[in-house]
Amino acid sequence: MTVTADLVGFGMTAMSLRAGPTPVQLACQAAAAALADAGIGPGDVDGLLVGSSQGVRPDRLGVAFAAQGGFADLRLLEHVEIKGATTIAMIQRATHAIAAAEASTVVCVFADAPVVAGKGAGSTYAHSGGNTGVRGLERASGLLGSVPTYALLAQRWLHITGSSTDDLCAVATQARTWAMGNPDAVNREPLDADGYAASPMVAEPLRRVDCARPVNGAVAVVLTGRPSTATVRLRIRGTGRHHPVRRRRSGAESWFGGGVRAVDDALTHAGLTRTDLDIAELYDPFSIVTLVLLDEYRLTGDTPAGAFVRAGQIGPGGLLPTNTGGGQLSGFYLQGMTPLAEAITQLRGAGGERQVPGATTALVAGIGGRLDHHAALILERAA
């Protein structure tokens, strides 16, 4: 008999734009909340997977969290790091461990605190990315962190698709519309096309509102193959990953062409098709990424992603409600936990003003690096 993994516990801290607790302290809060939500204690857990933001930082969450979080006698303990694809990789690893009887109940937790006293979150992420051997050249050219590199990606996408910045505007404004119904979102002020055009340019064509806003916070989930008292069980129906391993050299496309395999594998594993999806929660550190993933994952049928978004199809009442909590653009940026947290909220019917009626099946997608890593998860409300 094949053991299936269900998601039975969910815990999330407040998302803060101010310096405060450390990642370990935040992780402890989220894990405790997830266990309470599942109706179990640390002694019922025999697997722990932790994820953290990239980079070597003194406060980075690691396997030492097992002791710090009050766990013991674990059969599975790992630190997982594939950038923005980490969350789904943790879910995939936990699911496989449960199916193989390597563990029966696994907690997955991610925490980060890039906002520190006297510094902006952007300064923390400015040290990420880049190519070994040319970091000095990149910095001399202003390529600090991810914004300028994703601006190059955006310019390339607009060129090869014949699109315009109106598409970026449509993504950002619809994300903000969703966020206005999300009390956990950090950007809830109304945003229209005029407000978009007034937003300062960071790296052309990306404006401030095209970029995610990092927060200090944590999310934890509990997966189990055991019977539980959870009111709502969410079934892990399918997962998939794809790593294109881009060379970024002349003669090859530097950014696009990859990732659809992850979604195809997840859907095949689930025995579903794209028409079965009620919502999509996509990793969106920048507005351009939403457009790219809609296209590359073939989520818009025969309609180009830009036209699909301009028609309001990812917003409330659209054909494919997408990033229904505001995503990372207007909700909060907590790497791959952001889309997962919103999928859980929607499938539990706990979305309040932003709830998508009848949502039972979700695609959750995470990307890492500069579209270097893709991970997909099909999550379904169990009957």
Automatic annotation (TrEMBL):
Residues 260-381 form the Thiolase C-terminal domain. InterPro entries: Thiolase-like, Thiolase_C_2. GO terms for molecular function: acyltransferase activity. This is Thiolase. It comes from Mycobacterium heckeshornense. The lineage of its organism: Bacteria, Bacillati, Actinomycetota, Actinomycetes, Mycobacteriales.
